């Protein structure tokens, strides 16, 4: 162990709201400020002790433009003295903030960084940002790079049936519903005040889900495809945040260490099957750490689509019993810039509940990437 080892001392998120749902009138900056101020309140820290704010966001325009992270810092209790950067690695944007924060701390360049992200998919819609370079058409069918079409490509290329996808989606909702009823998300959720009242639970979980209902849903991306609104992640609003510090900083400020941050990896894949990105990312991580799938007690792999999530699980060799044990983005939702931090937040809290020594959080990334980070309970 080293004084500069990166550790997580806070891990929180907002509830997730459906598109045009409970957070339709809440700006992404306000979702973010609520988490940051909660972290400062819980730790007794202030802006003078935080070195940087690294904040992920995928759709960086309109309300989410203008280096939104700096606006958030100014609106929050962090204040003028804390610099801030907005990071975009699409679905792994906030995962990248944790990667960058932990790498900087491990290198001795920083001591304390708030790392996380946000996406308001109600207020900054997907689909309006489609001005891609025409040269991309020389090598790819750009229409096939849309997220839904890549999920169809994974299903077709790797033989993931509609039934398998619907079974996976059913399990995600059932697990998320049970986790909510049992209070398993309570430690990670910061209630959010809105004009219509306080929101303290995830809005998108279908508590009355059935396999029959899932099987009746139409496909949306291909007329004879297998991907439906039921076995795809939900369009969602939300934010997630961690406080990453050095071990020495945590001990100096008498902060409880929730988890140690291990190695990380990122990888690139064919963008037409972007959903397989976690496979090479995790494989790189295994090689770097000298581990294998059997060495991890819990796994959070972002459920962008059931097709890619199930295929990645099979290829990486993770057991169903340790995989997205409280459901995932199919049930909770996938606010693009927040999901990469939501995975570690949920993972770390569940590791404590199960006394699980090692965990991994990983996700696919639009246009063909993957990211992975490992975490361990403190010794």
TrEMBL record:
An annotated Gene Ontology molecular function: acetyl-CoA C-acyltransferase activity
EC primary class: transferase
**What Pfam families does the entry give?**
Thiolase_C, Thiolase_N
Q: Any idea where this protein resides?
A: Peroxisome
Q: Which PROSITE patterns match?
A: THIOLASE_2 (PS00737)
Q: A single GO BP annotation from the record?
A: isoprenoid biosynthetic process
Location of the Thiolase N-terminal domain = 7-247
Q: Supply the alphabetized keyword list.
A: Acyltransferase, Fatty acid metabolism, Isoprene biosynthesis, Lipid metabolism, Peroxisome, Transferase, Transit peptide
One GO CC term on file: cytoplasm
Predominant location of this chain? other
Identification of the protein by name: Acetyl-CoA C-acyltransferase
Naturally occurring in which organism (per UniProt): Halosegnis rubeus
Q: Organism classification, top ranks? A: Archaea, Methanobacteriati, Methanobacteriota, Stenosarchaea group, Halobacteria
